[in-house]
Amino acid sequence: MPPSPAPEPIYVGLRLRPLGSHEEGQERCVEMDGNVVTLFESPNCDETASVTTAGGGARTPRKLQQFAVDVAMDSSNPESEGYVCQESCYELIGKRVLEQTLGGYNTCLFCYGQTGTGKTTTIMGENGQELQRGKQGILVRLIQDLFEKASEMQQEVGDEVKMKVTMLEIYNDKLVDLIAPVSRPVRKNTGGGGGGGGGGGMR
User: Phi then psi for 88, rounded to 5 degrees?
Assistant: First the structure.
């Protein structure tokens, strides 16, 4: 077995999806440069949202905030040089989880964002094309590679491998077991709502 990787307390990735059909014509307000993400105000908001060059030239969007993350993934344009496809997203994020798990560490993959930001596509894959390897999301690829590694450990090293899988969904403040024959809410969160999120943990 290769040496265990050093533990990572937290590793943050940010992924930028392409504009949807309902967003056509809108100006892009996010830019990525390496691992730095910059947010801009739309130049159409008001006069304070843009600046004028010293010579009175064209107005440009004003920078609002910048964030540094561990890895920034631009999936907005398949034609761009740095485009991050599903496979690349898994290589950057998913494989780290697998390596840490096989190294003996408890791991958790959490995908957070508001409705429509691409969480399901990133985690599960593109809708209706989940069986196509190139379209599969992080979780599907992670499970496949995990079982392949477990098979190698059993055949090549003689290790005994045990796996237990649970799949739960939190939706509209209800917890649903996705594997049970009849999916039904098993508990309601009375602590109030919040942003959307999805993910899983392994140990």
Answer: -65, -40
Helical H segments across the chain, by residue range: 86-89, 95-102, 119-123, 138-152
Find all residues with CB under 8 Å of 87, minimum gap 6, and list them.
134, 141
Q: How confident is the model at residue 201 (pLDDT cuts 50, 70, 90)?
A: low
Structure tokens at 178: 């996705």
The percentage of the chain sitting over the pLDDT mark of 70, rounded to a whole number, equals 76
Give residue-wise pLDDT tens across range 97-136.
999 988 888 899 989 998 888 998 999 988 777 677 888 9
CA distance 59 to 52: 5
Pairing outcome for strands 13-16 and 71-74 = parallel
pTM: 0.72
Distance separating alpha carbons of residues 15 and 92, to the nearest angstrom: 11
Residues contacting residue 71 through CB under 8 Å, at least 6 positions apart:
11, 12, 13, 14, 35, 92, 93
